[in-house]
């Protein structure tokens, strides 16, 4: 049997650090994933963010005392004598500098959400990794939820439209969808696929509604819930059926993909795919600043310094020939 990969964690200020470690280090856990083990961690933490500073001590104690992880005092130390890195810091501001050190060490890395605190930093991270030929990837766990995959695979043809809703708790110092909003946004893109051209946004204290226009005259709608009742769900509008998400999931399927990535060095989600998702959220932020006007993803990506190969289309929709109107339409209350 091949020896387990040695994993280093950077950032012990989120529940993911505990949840990932128990799945890798505890063979008795029902969700155990073989092939890798967390051996070292740098706690990090953000003293000006309550969600970080109030939890880092507890998660550090858990991974150290319960799972035998060695605690070190720097990113550089966490990168020594390991095969791969889990970058799990709660927030995005330190990410660019952390990634500079990880890339310099040449370690494959999974970046937990958010990739960075700005689209510009996210683009720069991927540019640095590409230049150095260091394998990286980032994703939300919802991409591999069984219920999300069922909706994504409901029909062989692309979805005509999708509504995705979910919590969008705002984290200081970040675009307001980058933190929790990434989850329903990534679910939306998992079903719609790439090709979003532009977005418009309407915002109230309770929610933000972001409507994306995709190539092929398709629409994807994000309903980001800021206040009130919260849940995750997808609704797909297809050629022959409307499909609703019936179940969620947990971290286990994504962590399997992460370990496979560490083993093969082949990312399941490309830089262009991930950056399109962040460009969607950044364009939504810009639309909010412009009182709901349409903003193209290409505009924000160019502003962030993205290379041509990663840029979306220009946002111009080519008109399609008119289609005949169906004569027999379903009636309200009909079967």
Describe, in plain words, how this protein is organized in 3D.
Helix content is 33%, strand content 20%. The protein is built from eleven helices and 13 strands. The chain has helices at residues 15-25, 50-53, 56-65, 75-78, 95-105, 119-132, 146-152, 182-192, 252-264, 271-289, 297-303; strands at residues 5-10, 36-42, 70-71, 84-87, 109-111, 136-138, 161-167, 196-203, 207-214, 218-225, 233-237, 242-244, 295-296. The strands form two sheets. Strands 12-11-7-10-9-8-13 form a seven-stranded mixed sheet. The protein has a six-stranded parallel sheet with strand order 3-2-1-4-5-6, sandwiched between helices.
Q: Percentage of helical residues?
A: 25-40%
What can be said about the biggest beta sheet? Answer: 7 strands, mixed
- Using DSSP, what is the number of strands? 13
Give me the strand/helix succession. Answer: EHEHHEHEHEHEHEHEEEEEHHEH
Major sheet: arrangement of strands: 12-11-7-10-9-8-13
Poorly predicted runs: none
Mean of all residue-level pLDDT scores? 93
β-strand percent reads 15-25%
Count of helices?
A: 11
Any idea what the shape is?
A: globular
* First and last CA, distance: 58 Å
Radius of gyration: 21 Å
Q: Briefly note the structural class of the backbone.
A: alpha/beta
Oligomer: single chain
């Amino acid at each position: 049997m091949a020896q387990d990969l040695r994993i280093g964690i950077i950032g012990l200020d989120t529940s993911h650090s505990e949840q990932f470690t128990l799945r890798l280090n505890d063979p008795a856990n029902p969700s155990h994933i073989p092939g890798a083990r967390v051996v070292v961690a740098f706690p990090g933490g953000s003293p000006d963010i309550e969600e970080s500073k109030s939890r880092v001590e507890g998660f550090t104690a858990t991974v150290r005392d319960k799972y035998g992880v060695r605690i070190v005092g720097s990113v550089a130390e966490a990168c020594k004598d390991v095969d791969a890195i889990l970058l799990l810091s709660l927030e995005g501001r330190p990410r660019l500098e952390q990634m500079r050190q990880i890339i310099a060490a040449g370690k494959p890395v999974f970046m937990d959400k958010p990739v960075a605190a700005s689209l510009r930093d996210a683009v720069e991270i991927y540019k640095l990794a590409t230049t150095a030929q260091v394998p990286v990837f980032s994703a939300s766990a919802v991409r591999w939820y069984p219920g999300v995959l069922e909706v994504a695979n409901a029909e062989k043809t692309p979805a005509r439209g999708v509504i995705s809703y979910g919590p969008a708790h705002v984290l200081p110092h970040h675009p307001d969808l980058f933190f929790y909003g990434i989850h329903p946004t990534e679910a939306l893109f998992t079903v719609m696929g790439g090709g979003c051209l532009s977005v418009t946004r309407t915002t109230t204290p309770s929610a933000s509604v972001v409507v994306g226009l995709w190539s092929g005259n398709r629409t994807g709608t994000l309903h980001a819930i800021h206040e009130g009742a919260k849940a995750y769900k997808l609704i797909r509008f297809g050629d022959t059926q409307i499909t609703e998400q019936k179940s969620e999931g947990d971290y286990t399927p994504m962590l399997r993909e992460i370990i496979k990535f560490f083993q093969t060095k082949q990312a399941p989600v490309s830089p262009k795919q991930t950056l399109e998702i962040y460009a969607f959220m950044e364009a939504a932020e810009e639309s909010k600043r412009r009182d709901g006007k349409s903003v193209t993803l290409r505009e924000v990506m160019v502003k962030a310094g993205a290379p041509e190969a990663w840029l979306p289309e220009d946002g111009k929709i080519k008109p399609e020939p008119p289609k005949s109107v169906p004569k027999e339409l379903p009636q309200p209350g009909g079967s």
